Amino acid sequence: xxxxxxxxxxxxxxxxxxxxxxxxxxxxxxxxxxxxxxxxxxxxxxxxxxxxxxxxxxxxxxxxxxxxxxxxxxxxxxxxxxxxxxxxxxxxxxxxxxxxxxxxxxxxxxxxxxxxxxxxxxxxxxxxxxxxxxxxxxxxxxxxxxxxxxxxxxxxxxxxxxxxxxxxxxxxxxxxxxxxxxxxxxxxxxxxxxxxxxxxxxxxxxxxxxxxxxxxxxxxxxxxxxxxxxxxxxxxxxxxxxxxxxxxx
Length: 249
Prior knowledge:
By secondary structure, the protein is α/β, with parallel strands linked by helices. The protein has a single domain (5-100, 168-246), classed as P-loop containing nucleotide triphosphate hydrolases (Rossmann fold), CATH 3.40.50.300. The chain has 10 helices and 11 strands. The chain has helices spanning 55-62, 85-91, 108-115, 122-135, 137-141, 152-164, 182-197, 209-215, 233-236, 240-246, and strands at 5-6, 15-26, 29-40, 44-48, 70-75, 78-79, 93-96, 170-174, 201-205, 218-223, 226-232. The strands form 2 sheets. Strands 1-11-10-4-9-8-7 form a 7-stranded mixed sheet, sandwiched between helices. A 4-stranded antiparallel sheet has the order 3-2-5-6, with helices on one face. β8 (170-174), α7 (182-197) and β9 form a beta-alpha-beta unit. α3 (108-115) packs parallel to α6 (152-164). The two termini are 27 Å apart.
């Protein structure tokens, strides 16, 4: 097992999510090997590393799509290992999946309404819809348009907006920049920063280490199912290992 390097950062916030000694297998293949991480309230935390290192597996375990073989997942101090994804959504934990997964034959508005399918307070649903339209004016302009006719960047905005309809405490994003043009990547991350400033904590998996480190507060670096480095992004960016491996320095 690799020895974990940890870069220390002063300043403590309440812990919203904690994974403790998490181990996950795909059949007989070890995908996560005894990893631990925390996400504190109000943070943007990034998971970076090469393909197949276990980043997306971590998100899937956290949101209930995979069952850990060992370890514990705590959300707001509660063990949520055995909860189904819809139960986690109702507790305020929402995932924007890789590839966006919008309902292509439904309109933009119908996609957003699907994001609030378990909400019972329709007044609050309307309020959240207006907030999404304020955040993403293009979605308001295209609300009657089929989601499948949107550009990849607009579909990413729609996928994020759909998750926001539940007013999540923790927003999980799996590769939000994948398939986007450079201009749209920056637009999406600027919107994520704006979402975070309104009080939503964010945990994201991102292949583009540069953009992740530019926008996140802290990051965990994965390698072959293990976390090998963690710390505040302002320190990670200066780390020789990060510069050499991920930033071309």
